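Model: You mentioned two targets. I'll fold them one after the other.
Researcher: Yes, keep them separate.
Model: Target one:
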Amino acid sequence: MIKMENLYKSFDGLEVLKGVSLQVEQGEILALIGGSGHGKTVILKHVAGLMKPDRGRVDINGKDVYRLRGSELEELRSHLGFLFQSGALFSSLTVFDNVAFPLREKTRLSEQEIREKVLTVLEQVGLRGAEDKYPAQISGGMIKRTALARSLMRNPEIMLFDEPTTGLDPVIAHTILDLIQLIHKELKFTGMIVSHELSRVFQIVQRVAMLHEGVVLFVGTPEEIMTSGDPIVRQFITEALRVPPSALKHLYQEEIFHQKG
């Protein structure tokens, strides 16, 4: 579904991506992990066509994103949802109008059809009853859920999540990740997620890619990265989870056991 080949990207002479090649299979969610400034969000923006690489290419469904123009590019973007770290809601619009925005801008649906679709999605994300509130009147978790609802309005085949739990307390953060997992099971979208909530994220993704200094250091399943012998990988994981290296495999198995239970 998504294929990146030899991506390079620099900002003011600083190389952020140094030849990234990565694939995301149809229907899976891939977690992008790694330290701050190692290129995770930059990769998401390249997949969304919001940035252009200095070299390399991104293919979605076999089409080179950077060669598409006009209606072809719009068609591609119509199948892609992006949940930004900040939520990126319009402060002057209500929850309802924020979620309805892409339908009003990009479709010819009637207001009644839009209302039915918006209320259905708000129900999915637990926001029925909040549709008349403005972003300043709702909590951080509700802002993220509103942004998630908006990103789902055009039934995307691909979902990109950039730190969807930033600024939220642990309970609300897990609620957002639970919601992403639930919606993925229903819609079967292909996803990429950047998050530092590794213990929960590892339960909802099929594979993990770790970026280090602008390159892909590791790609594999959550279990494989938890048992990796690479010293850089182990150091990052143990610090992120705040557990001793010897406990990694046991911790992973225990969490999967509780998840299945």
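Model: Target two:
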Amino acid sequence: MKNNYLLIPLTIFAISCSNGNDKSDAYGNFEAVEIIVSAEAQGKILQFNLEEGNKLNKKQSVGYIDTIPLYLKKQQLIAQLESAAAKLIQVGSQIKVQEEQKITLMRDQDRFSKLVNANAAPSKQLDDINGQLNILNSQVLSTRTQNQSIAGEIKAIKYQVAQVEDQIIKSIISNPVNGTVLEKYIEPGEIAIPGKSLYKIADLSMLKLRVYISGAQLPNVKIGQKVKVFIDKNENKNRQLEGSVSWISQQAEFTPKIIQTKDERVNLVYAVKVDVSNDGSLKIGMPGEVKF
């Protein structure tokens, strides 16, 4: 009988040790890298083909914004470009005429210079030619400046055309990453402006379980380390998954309020992210446990 009484505390001790070994090392919730896709152009949304829960591919077109105002602006700029090009041709022809006049005056200048030196012609005629040549040089310089101004105007218009073309391209709503649509913020017919949120998307094929560990646990956790992840299978059982530590915070923080008891919440802990492949059973915000 005495031996039976001794077995009772030993059994209780063994059970408590077993429960301690089965206890997880850290607790937290699953999260994903969520991307809010915003409009890059302004105008009425004519088409927007997505709904919450849709799986989208990277660079997939999901809609477009009205581009008629941009098209008309582009045509206006093209007309300005053609007009400026015509002015450039006209100024070029004017410079050519002035250069020919300059050559003629320089010949007269050389001829009268020789006559004046030989006292065969009055110096006033040479002075008049020199004056005409100076005026013509000023006109050529002014015309060349005008030519450069028009060339700069053409260059600026070309940049404006490129800018409008870029805005037309950005009017096509292109999905940036592979993922699942989490939220939709706008409908066809509404007006979009640059920076306005259109929808939220996240890649759910790999979720991150953010857990918190104590300073005592920190030396035993390494980036790339394989760990066991547990989620609720039912009320009494857990389901085990494979995970890999992808990030460890370099700064301590107070335990979030959602973690464990009030006493544990005041302790300093380190956040850790564990990558877990998602077969469809993991959801954002779902609780999880880790055993290192």
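Researcher: Noted. Anything on target two?
Model: The chain has four helices and 15 strands.
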